[in-house]
Structures are given as structure tokens and as C-alpha cells.
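A reminder from the course coordinator: this example appears on the midterm review sheet, so study it carefully.

Given structure:
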């Protein structure tokens, strides 16, 4: 890419961001980043993962968490090179090609639509803890309510997400402290049996073998999906050069506390054999402790987590559709903003598609979660792959002096990026082996074919319109 192209690209990007309000402050970005990693994958999906891997799930989260940190630092390097809204699609478009940007934008949009279905599904399951309601009914109500919540300014969205995340963080820290108290003081029904020996005494640390642990990787990686959401907020952050690096650098301790720490505490207080798929391990742990009130509180918290994630999904989909439309890779109607800077049409379109999740709950209430999790995982990981490939190519160009160096370089790159790519490849192989997750690998080529045909149609109608330099 020549210097004139870079200048043209950056100028076009400034135009593309017109209309957005930089209303997200430092504390909001921090909590969005923290809350993005705490959702359904941890609160609900971990139940199935524990039953498959036992205590070794802790190791799976730790290793996968290291890979996530590599991905986030790669994203951070790109963001400090050029903080833009619709970042993953933009970087893929610049460093790989217009078609890569097209695929990434639409796939990341699809990821959040499918994730929205996942989170609504989980929220509907949580409601059955208190009420005997059909899952599809709860899913419908939540989808409508969250759509309404997204018709607000970005500043108010950030404030809502701040408090949603605060509830999740406070709850997990509180649960860790309660478990620590049980282990040291011995109170509650689990006090007499609680012991860190549960981590290796009930069949060993790898009760299902290393193969069983590897088979949980797609569930583990799903739990980390949405950590990259801070990249989407770049175009609406008040001070992205300061807030985004700080948020990204919190990834290691977030994973250490909220995943590794929380699971060690739970599995020490209650044996892994007590958990089962489809039941939140947090709720099940409190039930085993004899703390019924605590279980009800945790169920409310995980309900909040699911709704928070879905709310973030609606936020993200509208922005991604607008970025595609601005690049002539989506309907022009998606470029329209309300006076408060909200991409109303794109958000509305996405919310309508999320209602498919209601139908899934009606048709297959017991299988809905697993069906959408597997497809969300493969589509979400595509964004990670594009981040890593874009960072590798950007670093090579910057080292050659063709582009300015980023102020937030990824340590160990590009080797860490190559390692992360290899790890993601292994997860995809594991998904192919797992019959429950294999459906996503069947759907991915179909989705890719649809995008390929759509891109060819766009290119035939407007050969130059899909290029980034033509953004208007």
C-alpha cells in the first residue's frame, strides 16, 4: 500500500466516523471489556465442559486464555495504528483485501446475531429456575425489551453496560470469597467435604483423559468470544489511545480471576462429578452448599450476564452493518443514523433476525443452546483469524517502513500470532471430531458460498465500489 493510499484511507475513515458520538469514557470501556468476557459461556456452558473434562477444565481455560491475550494484543497493535469503528472488517479490508473485509464484516455481524440467539436462549433457561414458563415466550420478551434498550445514545448504552458488568464482576468475586470461606472455615452443607483435593481425588486431574479436555476447547473458546468487542467501540471512545490499551492489558487478570480462579474455587468446594450439562455450575454449587438464597441470587446474576451480552450484540451488529454499507458492501439504508448517533435500521434488522432464536426455542427447547453455540464459535473465531492475519501483515509492512509503527506493539509478535492461529486451527479440528459441534463446520462452507456469490454480484454491479478507497 502506498503512502497516498494510506492517506486516502485515513481520510475516508474520518468521514466514515461522522455521526458517531465519542461518548464512551474510560470506566465504561474498562467494564465493557471485562463484562464482554463474562457471559453464557462461563455461566452456562461450563456445566457441560466440567462434565466432559473434570478439573482439567481449569488448565483448558488457562491455556486458551493465554491465546486470547495474544489475540487481544494483536488487535491492540492494530487499534493504536488506526482506531476505527468496524475495526475487524476494516483491517481485513486494508491488509488482506476487499473480499476479506466483506466476509469479515458480514460474518462478525452473523456471529452477534447468532450469539444474541444464544444469550436469549440461556436467559430463557434461567427463567425456568423461578417460573414455569415456555422458553420461547421468555426469549421473545427478552428480545423485544433489549431491542428497545438499544434505541438510546451510545453514552447511555455504555452506562447500562457498566452496571451490567459491575453486577457480574461483583457476583463472581463474592462467590470466590464464599467458596474460600467454606474451604477455610467449613460453614454450609458442603463445609465437611470441601477440599482442594477434589481437583485430583475424584478420578484424577484428567478423569476423562487429555482427549476429553481437548474436546472441551470449542466450549472454552466460546466463553471468550466477545472480548474483542472493545475493537468495535474504538470509533465511539473518548480517548481510544489511552482507554483501549488499558482495557486490553486487563485480559490476563480477568481470565485468571473470573475463569481460572472461579473454577478452582467451585471445583474445590463441590466435586466435579456433581455438575451436569445444561445447569449453571454456579447455581448448582450453591444448591450443593445448601444456600438456596445464594443459588437464586446467582441465577439472577447469570440472567443479567446473558441479557448484557445480547445487548452488546445488538450494539455491535448495527455498527458492523453501517461499516459495510459505508464501503458499498451492504444496503445504503444501513448508513443512516438517528440524531443520537444510533444506527437504527441496522440494529432493527439484526433484532428481527434474532427473533429466529425464539423459533428455535419453540422447536427444540432442549437442544437450542448447543445448536447455536457451535455455529457462534466458528463464526466468532473467523474474526480472531482476521485480526491475527491482519496484524502479521501490518507488522511486516511497518517493519519495512511502509506504514507507521504502532504505539502498542504486541509482545512476541508475529510468533505469538502464528501460535494463536495454530491453536485456533486445532480447535476447529476438535470441532470436526465432536459430533455435537460438527454442524457448524457444515454450515460454514454454505455461508462462505453465499458470501462469495453476493460479493461477485456486488462487484459486477459496481467494480470499484467495494474498494476501501471508494468509501463515501
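Designed residues:
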Amino acid at each position: 500500500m502506498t503512502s497516498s493510499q494510506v492517506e486516502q484511507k485515513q481520510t475516508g475513515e474520518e468521514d466514515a466516523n461522522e455521526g458517531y458520538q465519542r461518548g464512551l469514557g474510560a470506566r465504561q470501556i474498562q467494564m465493557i471489556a471485562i463484562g464482554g468476557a463474562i457471559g453464557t459461556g462461563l455461566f452456562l456452558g461450563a456445566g457441560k465442559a466440567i462434565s466432559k473434562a473434570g478439573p482439567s477444565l481449569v488448565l483448558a481455560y488457562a491455556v486458551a486464555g493465554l491465546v486470547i491475550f495474544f489475540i487481544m494484543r494483536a488487535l491492540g497493535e492494530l487499534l493504536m495504528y488506526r482506531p476505527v469503528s468496524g475495526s475487524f472488517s476494516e483491517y481485513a479490508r486494508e491488509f488482506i483485501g476487499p473480499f476479506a473485509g466483506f466476509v469479515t464484516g458480514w460474518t462478525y455481524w452473523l456471529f452477534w446475531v447468532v450469539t444474541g440467539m444464544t444469550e436469549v436462549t440461556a436467559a430463557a433457561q434461567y427463567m425456568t429456575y423461578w417460573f414455569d414458563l415456555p422458553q420461547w415466550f421468555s426469549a421473545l420478551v427478552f428480545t423485544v425489551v433489549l431491542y428497545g434498550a438499544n434505541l438510546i445514545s451510545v453514552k447511555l448504552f455504555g452506562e447500562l453496560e457498566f452496571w451490567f458488568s459491575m453486577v457480574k464482576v461483583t457476583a463472581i468475586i463474592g462467590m470466590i470469597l464464599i467458596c474460600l470461606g467454606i474451604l477455610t472455615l467449613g460453614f454450609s452443607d458442603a463445609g465437611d467435604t470441601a477440599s482442594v483435593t477434589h481437583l485430583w481425588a475424584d478420578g484424577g486431574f484428567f478423569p476423562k483423559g487429555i482427549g476429553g479436555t481437548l474436546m472441551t476447547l470449542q466450549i472454552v473458546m466460546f466463553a471468550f468470544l466477545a472480548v474483542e468487542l472493545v475493537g468495535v467501540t474504538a470509533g465511539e471512545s473518548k480517548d481510544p489511545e489511552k482507554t483501549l490499551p488499558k482495557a486490553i492489558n486487563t485480559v490476563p487478570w480477568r481470565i485468571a480471576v473470573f475463569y481460572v480462579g472461579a473454577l478452582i474455587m467451585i471445583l474445590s468446594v463441590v466435586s466435579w462429578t456433581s455438575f451436569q450439562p445444561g445447569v449453571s455450575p454456579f447455581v448448582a454449587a450453591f444448591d450443593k452448599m445448601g444456600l438456596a438464597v445464594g443459588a437464586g441470587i446467582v441465577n439472577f446474576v447469570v440472567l443479567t450476564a446473558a441479557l448484557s451480552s445480547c445487548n452488546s450484540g445488538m450494539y455491535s451488529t448495527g455498527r458492523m452493518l453501517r461499516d459495510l454499507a459505508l464501503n458499498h458492501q451492504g444496503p445504503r439504508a444501513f448508513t443512516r443514523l438517528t440524531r443520537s448517533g444510533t444506527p437504527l435500521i441496522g440494529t432493527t434488522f439484526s433484532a428481527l433476525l434474532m427473533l429466529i432464536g425464539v423459533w428455535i426455542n419453540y422447536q427444540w427447547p432442549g437442544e437450542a443452546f448447543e445448536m447455536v453455540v457451535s455455529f457462534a464459535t466458528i463464526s466468532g473465531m473467523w474474526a480472531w483469524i482476521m485480526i491475527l492475519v491482519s496484524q502479521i501483515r501490518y507488522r511486516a509492512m511497518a517493519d519495512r517502513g511502509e506504514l507507521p509503527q504502532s504505539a502498542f506493539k504486541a509482545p512476541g509478535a508475529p510468533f505469538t500470532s502464528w501460535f494463536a492461529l495454530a491453536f485456533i486451527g486445532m480447535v476447529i479440528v476438535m470441532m470436526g471430531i465432536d459430533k455435537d459441534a460438527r454442524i457448524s463446520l457444515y454450515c460454514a462452507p454454505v455461508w462462505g458460498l453465499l458470501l462469495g456469490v453476493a460479493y461477485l454480484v456486488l462487484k459486477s454491479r459496481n467494480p470499484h465500489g467495494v474498494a476501501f478507497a471508494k468509501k463515501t
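Residues 1-18, 468-472 have pLDDT under 50 and may be disordered. Residues 23-401+412-457 form a domain with the Amino acid/polyamine transporter I fold (CATH 1.20.1740.10).
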